[in-house]
Write a structure and sequence with these properties.
Oligomer: single chain
Largest sheet: 4 strands, antiparallel
Strand order of the largest sheet: 9-8-11-12
Radius of gyration: 30 Å
Order of helices and strands: EEEEEEEEEEEE
Strand content: over 45%
Helix content: under 10%
Structural class: mainly beta
Shape: rod-shaped
Amino acid sequence: TYTITGNTNPGCGVSIDAGNHIDIRPEPKWFGVSEVTIQVAYGGLTDTDVFTVRVNNINDPPSAPVVAIEPNEPGITDALVCRVTEPSTDADGDVIIYIYQWFSSLNGVVFTGPHWSARTEALNATLDPSYTSGGQYWKCLVTPFDGVLEGGASDATVRVRNDSTISASLDKAS
């Protein structure tokens, strides 16, 4: 007869099946080390042995965030704020860092860059209006990073308006 007489971390999922085989099926998301003691008994004889189960962590990437750019109809003097409106989640509970990258385009189809980027835990990043010109399209690409893996990226695009330079004044009629 085979019996497990010790297991320092039962989450490792060690068991003995009907055929007296050792099965190892760790619980979902379990990783770590466990010392397992097995005892064998045959007639009046017994013996024990200890073995180690080691399961390395398998990191899951964070989910893609949802992003938006504010204001949604910027003028040439407006800073563009790329905002994470729905944050990423990480199944491993890792801290998420967002990689913000800004790309520009003259036609809204072919983008160049990145012209500016930032890595931060903050849920927003701002592009100064000194980077933009009227008529340009700007795309903010946001990629979540958990310190090991990048998750799916999301982006948002706006077009910078050409602000009018026309001014008018009224003279008081005499």
